[in-house]
Amino acid sequence: MKEFKNIKNIIFDCDGVLYKDLDAVFGQVSKRMGEYISKKLNVDLKEAKELQRTYFHQYNTSLNGLMIHHKINPNEFLKYVHDINLDFLEKDTVLREDLLNLDAKKFVYTNGSRDHVKNITKHLGIDDLFDGIFDIVDGQFFPKPQIEPFKILIKKFEIS
Question: Rounded to whole angstroms, how far apart are CA atoms 52 and 8?
Answer without folding.
Answer: 37
